[in-house]
Structures are given as C-alpha cells and as structure tokens.
Amino acid sequence: MNRNATLLGLALALGFSLRAQENLELGKMWTFENPPLEYWKEAHGFQASQEWLDKVRLSSLRMASGCSASFVSPKGLVMTNHHCVRDMVSQVSPRGKDWVKDGFVAKNMEDEVQLPGCVLQQLVAMKDVTAQINEGIKEGDSDADVSSKRDANQKKVVADAMAKDPAHFHQVTKLFQGAQFQLYSYKRWEDVRLVVAPNLQTSHFGGDPDNFVYPRYCIDFSFVRCYENGKPADSKSNYFKWCTTGIKDGDLVFVTGNPGQTNRLKTLAQLEVMRDVQYPIRLQELDNQIAIYHKFMAQDPQVEQQLRTQVLGLENSQKAFRGYLGGLQDPSLFAAKKKAEEAFQKKVMADPALKAKFGQVWAKLADIAAQQRIWAPRGKFYNPGNSAILTRAATIVRAVTAKEEKDRKQAKQMATRPLPARSEMGKELLTDTLVRARQALGAEDEFLGALLGKETPAKALDGILASKLYDDETVKKLIAGDEQGLKDLNDRVLNAALVMLPVAERAQVEIAKLTAEENAQSALLGQALFACYGTKVSPDATFTLRIQDGVVKGYPYNGTLAPWRTTFYGLYARATEFDGRHPFDLAKPWVERKDRIDLTKSLNFVSTNDIIGGNSGSPIVTKDAEVIGLIFDGNMEMLPNNFLYRSDVPRSVSVHGDAMIEALTKVYDAQWIADELIGTRG
Amino acid sequence: MNRNATLLGLALALGFSLRAQENLELGKMWTFENPPLEYWKEAHGFQASQEWLDKVRLSSLRMASGCSASFVSPKGLVMTNHHCVRDMVSQVSPRGKDWVKDGFVAKNMEDEVQLPGCVLQQLVAMKDVTAQINEGIKEGDSDADVSSKRDANQKKVVADAMAKDPAHFHQVTKLFQGAQFQLYSYKRWEDVRLVVAPNLQTSHFGGDPDNFVYPRYCIDFSFVRCYENGKPADSKSNYFKWCTTGIKDGDLVFVTGNPGQTNRLKTLAQLEVMRDVQYPIRLQELDNQIAIYHKFMAQDPQVEQQLRTQVLGLENSQKAFRGYLGGLQDPSLFAAKKKAEEAFQKKVMADPALKAKFGQVWAKLADIAAQQRIWAPRGKFYNPGNSAILTRAATIVRAVTAKEEKDRKQAKQMATRPLPARSEMGKELLTDTLVRARQALGAEDEFLGALLGKETPAKALDGILASKLYDDETVKKLIAGDEQGLKDLNDRVLNAALVMLPVAERAQVEIAKLTAEENAQSALLGQALFACYGTKVSPDATFTLRIQDGVVKGYPYNGTLAPWRTTFYGLYARATEFDGRHPFDLAKPWVERKDRIDLTKSLNFVSTNDIIGGNSGSPIVTKDAEVIGLIFDGNMEMLPNNFLYRSDVPRSVSVHGDAMIEALTKVYDAQWIADELIGTRG
C-alpha cells in the first residue's frame, strides 16, 4: 500500500470528507477555467498539465446548431454526429438525391460540399467577469433592479470585448445560476464543408425504439472540414490524434463538449413545478404532435421526406421528456434531492452571517414557484406563434395600435408576409393546441373565451379558417386604417386578437417579473453554495465547453449485465432477429458488403461520463488525449441525471473509433479519410 | 368478414362475456381431460380433434426428477433440457472425464450410456375420482376429519388401480386445491440412456446473470432414449415430428409439460404470509448459502466440481424467489388479485345458497394464515436436518425415549450412521442457519435457548463442535442405555436435543393441523370457483401434464423492443462483447468451429405460453403437432405469473429446433441424431 492510499484510508477512517468527493450529485461537467485537478488525482491517479488542458480545449468545438465537435486531423477535419448535420445535409442534397438516406462521401477535398449554416466555434479565452457584471448593484436593490443592472453590465462587457478584439466572438456565460460570470471568447469558422455522412439507417439504426437505449448499434458519425479563406483550416497544433491502441473495460476517458442544460441546483419547489406543470404540458404536446405528423407522413411520401428529420428530433425530445418526467416522478430521486437540500440549508442556517444573507432564498424560490404554477401554462399557450392566422391577426392589431412608431412599422411589414396554405394537418395541429390550451388554462380563461366562445376547439375551427384575414388585400386595408377599422371588420379571429393581445402582454410582464426574481434568488443560491462548499463544484450545464471525466464500464440491466461495448456481430444480430423490419433494417451497402466487415470490431461503448443534450458530437478521448470515440447518446437511465448526477446505471453511449474506420474503409470506399485520421499518428 | 367473426363481434358488442376469456388470470395450464376447445377456437381459430389431443399427450413425457420431455423419433428418442439430466450425466462421467463440462455424444446406439435414476412417465389414462375421494365425508365433519378421510380414500383408489392394472403407475392428482381429483395412470421407462449432451457452457451460456433473462443464447438441450427389454422403445405411434418449415412472429404454438406449482387460487391473506414470512426466509437462506458455497468453491477446485451443479440449482432458485417475492411486493399485482378476489366474493355473497356454503372460506383462510405467520418459521427452523450433529442427537433421544418399539429400533439404526467430517464450510453453514433461526424465532425461543444458552451462534459453535456425540462408541453406549444415561452425559448438544424434540414435535402437530384446515378450506374455495365460473378454468400447476397455448411474440423491454428470436450472431456478439469472460465464454468446439455455423439461424425464441418450473424440457409444437423447439426457461417478468397470469411482458423462452440441428451437425459430429430427428418427417 503506497503512502497516498494510506492517507486516503486514514482520511476516510477519520470521517474527513474528501473535498473532491463532496457534492458529486451536482455532477462532473467541469469548466476549463476551474478543472478539478485534485479530484482527478485522487479518483483516477491522473494529473492534468496546463498544456494537456489547453490542447484538449482547443481541439474541442461547439456547433452553433446545438452540438459539439472536435478537430481530428491537422487539416481542419472535424468529427461530429450524423444527427448534428442531418438537417443541413438534407438541405444541400441535390434534387433527385437523398444524401440523408443514402449517405454522402467526398472523393477528395475538392469534392467536399459547403454546408450553409454550419458554424463551428473554438473556445480560445476565458475571463472571470463576475465583478463587472455585478457592478452598481447595491444592498436593498429589488430583484428586478438586480436583473436589469446585470443585463446592462453584460451588454457592456461584451461590447467592450468586441471593440478590443473584433476577430473573436464574445459571450458572457452565467455559471452557478449567476453566482459567477465568465466571458468566453471564440474563434469561429463559417465555411464548413461536408466530407462524409453515412446512411441515415446506419447512424440511426433501431430508430426511435432504440433511441436512448443500450446495448446499441448506431454508427452515428459524420466528418466535416473547416475552411479559412477557401483553404482547409490549419489545425495542426490543436487536434485529437486517433487512438489505434484501443480501450478496455475500466479505462479512464474524458469527454469534452457543450452540455446544454441541467437543473441540478434547482430547489425542490422548483422541480415540483417542472414535474407537475411544465414537463407534463410539454410531453403531451410532443405526444400529440408526433401522432399527427405520423398520420400525415404515412399518407404522403413527400410529406414524409419533408418532415422526417423534424419528427426524428421530436421523437428524441419525447423520449427525453419521458425520461426527465420519469426521474422527477421517482420518489428515490426526490428523496436524494431532499436530503441534499436539507444538508445545504442546515449549513446556511448554522452560520448567522450566511443565514442573514441566504436564509430566505428557499422560501422565496418556493413563492416564485407557486406563481409559476399559474403563469407557466399562460406563457405556453398565450402565444399566437402556434398558429399562422392567429399570428397574423396579432400582428395586424400591433401594426395599428402599438404605441411606438417603429413597432407599428415592423408589424406592418410582418402582417403581409405570405401565409402557408391551409392544410388538413395544420387544422389538426391547431385543434390539438386549442384542446390542450383549454385543458391547461381552464374554461374561464379570457383569451380562449374570445377565440372559441362557447364552442369546442374542433367546432370553432371552421370559424377560424373562414377568417377574412386570409385575404391579403383585406389585411393591407386594415393596416392602413385605425383601430375602429379593425373592430368594424367584425372578424372572429381579429376580434380574438384584440382581446388576446393585452392579456398576452400582461402575462408576458408577469412572467418576466417572475423570471427576474427567480434569476436573482438563484444567483444567491449559487453564492450560498460557494459559501458552504467552496467553488470547486460542477456548475449546471450552459451549452459551453466542459470536460467530463468517466470510466468505460458496463452496468446491470434487464436483470443481467450490459457489456461495456457492442460489436458488429450485435448489429447483424439485431437486424436478423427482427427479420430486417424497419427500424431494424440495414442500409443497402451494409447488406452488400457484410462479408468484408470484421464482426468482432467494437461498434458502440458505454462510460460513466456526465453528459446531456448538447454533448452530441463530443469526442471521447484517452488520458493521452487520443480520440477513441464519439458521444452520440446517453441511456434512458441517464435522463434523470438532468436533476441529480448518478453513475450506478446512467451511461454515456459512444461510437467506437474502430467502427468509424471499419465503415470508412470497408463500406464507404473512403480510405483517404481513414488515412487522414490514422495517418495523423506518431 | 365470415359468419363466425360477425357473431363474435356481435357477442362482444352486446356485452356477452365469452366464457373462454373469463378468469384468464388463473392461467392457461389446461388439463388433457378438460381442454378449452371453445376458447382455442375463438382465440386462435384452432380446432383440436381428439386424435390430435391424444397424439400430443402420448408424445409428451414427465421426468421423475422434476422436468418434462417428449418423444421425437419413432425409436424412443427423447428430447429434454441439458439442465434436466446434468446431475445424472455428472454421476456417469467416467473418472478423469467431465461429460458435463465437455459434453457427450454417442457415436451410435450401442454407444449410448445408461442414466441410473432417469425415469420417464407417459400419461396413458385419466379418470375423475372426485366422488371416490370424498366418500364418507359428512356435513359437520371437522377439517381434520375431512383431510384424513380423503387421505384414506386416496390410498384406496390408488391401491385398487394398482391391483387392477399393475403394469402402470397410478397417482391421484388434486386439482383446484381439492375441488377435483383425477386418477392419472402412467407408463414408465426406467432404462433411459444418454444420447447427446452439449458442453455445460453451451447449455448454460451467460450463467447466473443471464438466467431468467431474454434476449438469451442458451442451447440447453439433451437427447436420451427410452429402452424396453434392452431395445429402443417403439414410439412410432406417438412422437413429435421435427418441424423444418420454421415459425414466425405471431404463430400459434403449444407447450406440453408438467408445470410444478403455482399459487393463483390462493387468497390475499395466504399470499401475504408468503410475502412477509415464507419467501423472505427462503430467499435469505439461499443468499447466504450461495455466498458460503462460492467462498469455498473459489478456494478448492475439487469442492467446485463437487458443488457446481448444486449451486447452479440454488442460484436458479435464488433468482426465481427474487422474482416471486418481487411480484408479491408489486402493488399492481396485489391490486389485480384484490379486484379478482372481491369480484369472486361478491358472486358468492349474492347467492344465499353459495353464501351459506362458502361465505366463511376467506375469513377462515385468513385465520389460518395468521397462525401460519407464527408456525411457519418454527416449521422451518425446528428441523435438526440442518445439522448432522443435531440430527444425530435427536435420533439418539428418539432411540431411547420413543414410545413404539419400531420407532426406537429405526432410530437406533440411524443413530450410528457415519457423520460427515467437521469442515470449515459446515461450520459456516451451521452458524448461518442458527443466526437466521434466532432472527426468525426471536430471543425467547425455547429450542434455541436450549442449544445456544445466552451465547451468539458463532460463540456457541465451539461448544457444539466439541460434543461427545461425534464419538461413535459413546453413541453406541447411549442408545443401549436409558433416558437417565442421556441426562448423565451432560453434553450440550444432547441436552439441547432433549429440550428440542418435544418442542419440535409440538410444532409439527400444530403445522399438520393448520395444513389440514387449509386443505379443507382450499378445497371449498375450489368448489366455490366452479359454482361461480364453471369448471372450464385452468387449475393451479400440480406437476402433471398440461397443454399450454400461446403465440410467438417479442415484447417491450429495456425501453425498446425484444425480438421474437435470437440468432447465432447474437451468441457470438455477447461472447465477444464481454471479451469472452466467464460466464460469457464459449465452449471450445464453438470457438474452433465458428466458421461452419450459419450465424443467421434462430437460437432461442419467446412465446406467451403459460409455464413455470417443471416445464423445463417441454416440447413446443406447431398446430400440426410438429416440434419447433424446447422450453428451457421463462423471462424474469414471468416469475410473478406464479400468482397471476399475465401475457403483456411475461414470456417463455425456448431453444429453437434449428439451433439443435446446427449444434448436432456442425459442432458435435452427430449427424446420425439429426438424421433420426429430421428423417422422421414425411
């Protein structure tokens, strides 16, 4: 037994809590400005140098579209998920081709295809700006004052940074709910080109049933390339080399990426509103919309192709929200949260200074949560964006009645934008929204009363669709006239908009007020956390770059064990065992070229890294900073980690590097890309 | 739409409840004397002829060791599970060979090896003897009288049958808890020889983790052969032909076999005692014993080989009891049982005649259950069988003090039987038993007080192991003497036995009394069931032949779907994905001959047939009575079916016929057996 182990044992025996092991329920989404070096040393025997950290950070990328990515060659080659570029690939597919379904492989660099809207960002600098953001805030300021001062300061900090360093993109990131603010500066690439994308059915094998599930068999990868001045970007000083020595069960691995949002610092009262109000409303919306889309996609192949990627995204959200809501409804999760919250409160209350400053935070957040129970459904449904005709009606009213000239002008321009054609699907979607709105808001709601009268949504729909506002000429006359002109038209939809707009605006004001109050109290909660536990804890996800340590590890599932990895044997097993029926069918080249494939090669693997949506496309690397895989999902058991980090069964799911090489070389005739990846070694 | 469908629709529309769909929570373990012909017609469109039923019955077999089997060739070839003959194969393995681990394949008929103790039974006749069994029972008889009259009648019925037809083996089977009695007559084969057994690791791939789990990859089969007068039995008029046309998802399949025990007619009060007392005690015993065995097996390969199959059996029970207890602890199961029980009670109470006859049954069974809470732990732990030295002590006391001369004589013979050597493992097992006994019986228990005094079991153990009763000469002297001689020895263990024996005998009397009362009330409950629902319901399992209809069908699992079958791809996937680590290692011939195997062939498959322990080795056949597979397990979700039949996720798991042919022809060089199976077609 070495000395460290002895000390560790002694510390534990004496009941000392190791700093690094405290508050792990807050997770392991570490920031690069505050890496948990001691914890890594204790937990993994791993010592990260600043050079290692810098290299890893600069090799990692954020996609403006909500994903993560990384440089994997010296020539600007970027690895991310297929599902992160799917929409863009769909948009650049030439007429008559379907690069999403059939895949795309550039023959060489010249053959690479620009992806409009694909923007990549590299975090080049971090600076603590907490003091600047809090400048001018005085004791006794109201929550609203605090919020608006911070907003103003934040704009100034960004503007100053832009003035000083216009080559980079600057953003203030609020960490720990506003207890800390960081100015992050990014290098950006906007000329990004598609290099290779596999077949949809290869990246998405098993479809919605297998989504958020492990064991899994998805080769969900794509490669794009950053260009600068028309030439491949020079990334030779910051890219991940390709690991060709493999990994094994138990190995330490790091993920770098941009987890989108977690809610681990939220109080019980806040989580209860999510559980009782917000998530059920959202899940019901997803369930109903997906059912309607599927109905119309089944009727028309053109609708199917048009909605396909959107529906995949909605189904992904549906399963995610089911998992989140399931977590919130799990008594054991709430019990654990309660225990942590009570311990935290006890620490605060035990110290008079802390009690004076933070003692009221939980009660105030509970008051705010009680108000949100009322206003959250209104915020959701007082939104004419759910309907094109309602949006037009609201815009007309604003064009005529807004106080500010510029608001009227802007609304006038918007009011005459062409409306989408009235369709059966549109009708069903609108009816569904109105039915759910009535359920959520109740029969007495003023806005719905104006729109529906005493009719059911289905009955009222005919009246809505018969609105004179579908006629562009009528609209032009209306926006040239006055409020009396609007009333004189006596159109059901326009009349509803006249009632709705002030109601919606009142709701907006209330919600904004609650949000400001919540922000201010949440920031206090973050400060209380620092005061009690120190600053070396993991902040909630903010869609900014994090480094997430974990180990490769199977787990108990289905009454037995899930292995740490799957193989190509497993892919062909699952396809065969479902008799090749969709979504367990194999893309054509995978059927035709089956005999070339080494079935023993690793396909997907799992690890304990703490990830969430936004981490899609993240590299997963060894302690030597070599890329061994590509994060593309978490298992279902991980979804409740949104609220509390656990590592007993939650797992990240990655595409193994070997699977990508196997696909490139054996199936997609893309040896040149494999060479660029593997040739980068040494 | 044909006329039948119209009628069916009409019946449903009018609210007629179809007889066949009532009481399916009691399951689908139909008897051959009472097959649900109407239900099969309605549910599956299948019409079974008497000829079909007879052929299926006579092709099916029961193994005296607790399994099921079937004839699969005209020459007496019998199919069953590997785990059904494992113990016997272990016993006939020649010195230096390990036929369990390495498998056994007869080169031809002459090479087949007799399996002592392997007895097969064929159900040749069924006769309702309810009237004979109830003969002489009068209104007002006590429960004890009813029980003893039935016992006496039963002996007489069997003796009469034996006298009339000595060639067959006759047994009275109590159905519906004693509401019905059947005299079953069996043809028996006692000369049974081993034909082929695969490697243990092939039949038991995935070991304890994968036990009761699906997806699954076990080729758990063996073939034996019945001999008559030294020649292969002639089974040409009753064997299952081998299905070579395959099955698919949704196909109707029948299982015939001998399910051991279910508890579906038990009342809530009875189930609560199982949940709170009996099952927890049994599960704790299994958990502790298995842990102790594993400890000593890991230390000594000889102990490992000696205990291997016993421990596999214990682990099987452990997982089963976990599933049973989990089911009883599942509020939804209890809620469903409660609903069914309340509906049943309501029917009884609504009819004055039924109320008079059966109205008290539930209350009486609840009283009995309350008594069992006290006596069940005593029945379990007042059993010197748990310890060789305690058993010897009790036998010595009986040898000297029993009232009957013949009891004293028998005890004298037993008292001097050699004791097993005192071992560390024996010590740990005894200590564990005593610890659990103290937990279950409490500190005040008379028997434990005598044995342990005020010491803990671990402390008392030294005293127990120092007993003079280990000395055979001392024992001889004692049994030749009188009671005073026993007292004079002043040996701790013997003194404890002197206290224990009367206590244990009192417990036995109480338990026997409760059992008689429970039997009598349970029979009334069965009669009430007939009175309310008719006799065409499925009786609880009784380890007698049943026919169990179901369909081949995948199910929701792990957040996604489980396919209806697995393939050899899946076997090699699971082995590779665990890096070949035990219990996911492949037997040597399966590694060496991998390239010969058609990986797309079906390996295991699932269906909704209603099975339970005892069904192991059952054939699973198509509606043409062709064998398509071999039942070897149920999934974990099926275990609570012990108490209530459900078919949403519970599934039977079978070895597919193709997997057996693949194993015989490609791996085990046993083409001649495959020829005998498949050659039987046409």
Textual characterization of the structure:
Two copies of one chain form a homodimer. Chain A is of the alpha+beta class. Among the domains of chain A are: 21-119 and 190-262 and 548-678, Thrombin, subunit H (Beta Barrel), CATH 2.40.10.120; 378-528, no CATH class. Helices cover 49% and strands 16% of the residues of chain A. Chain A is built from 26 helices and 22 strands. In chain A, strands 2, 3, 4, 5, 6, 7, 8, 9, 10, 11 and 12 form an eleven-stranded antiparallel β-sheet that branches. In chain A, α10 (268-299) runs antiparallel to α11 (301-328), α10 runs antiparallel to α17 and α14 packs antiparallel against α22 (492-533). The radius of gyration of chain A is 27 Å and the shape is globular. Chain A starts with a helix and ends with a helix. Chains A and B meet through β18 and α23 of A and β17 and α23 of B.
